Amino acid sequence: MVTIVRQPQTFYRRTASKNVVQWTIWLQEDQGVYTIKTSHGQKGGKIIEDAGVVIVSGKSGRTPMEQAVLEFDSKISKHRDQGYTFNTDGINLTVFVALLRGNQMVASAYFLEKEKSFNS
């Protein structure tokens, strides 16, 4: 029987084409085998569920559950660094969060896009 270990969490980001995309992640366990599942797509559009990352053993002395939670948290951190937020309120401000986290490429792309639209 499949058990949800970590409830689904959905994150949002605005693309360069001004669309809002979403990414959802959850962790499930079935008979000691852990699977990190994700889905992604345009908000309000088609959502694609990925096959998932199967974790049957831990690394560096970790249990399979500890390994799964570590990888789960790592994937969330990576997406947060890419500008994903928990909700769509103030989604345009995520570039400043990215800049504060040291992701200058995201911030530079945002400011270049804003400059183009301002000068048009």
The main β sheet shows up as: 5 strands, antiparallel
Could you say how many structural domains there are in total? 1
Task: Give the helix level as a range of percent.
Answer: 25-40%
Instruction: Report the sheet-strand fraction.
Output: 25-35%
The Cα radius of gyration reads: 17 Å
Instruction: Give the SSE string.
Output: EEEEEHHH
- Please tell me what the overall shape is: elongated
Mean pLDDT comes to 82
Low-confidence stretches: 114-120
**Total helix count?**
3
**N-to-C CA distance:** 57 Å
Annotation, overall tally of beta strands: 5
Structural class: alpha+beta
What does this structure look like?
- The protein has one domain (3-119).
- The termini are far apart.
- Mean pLDDT is 82; it is low at 114-120.
- A hairpin with a 4-residue loop joins strand 3 and strand 4.
- Strands 1, 2, 3, 4 and 5 form a five-stranded antiparallel beta sheet that branches.
- Helix 2 runs antiparallel to helix 3 (104-119).
- It has 120 residues and is an alpha+beta fold.
- The protein is built from three helices and five strands; from the N terminus they run E-E-E-E-E-H-H-H.
- It is elongated and about 45 Å long.
How would you sum up this structure in a few lines?
With 120 residues, the chain is an alpha+beta fold.
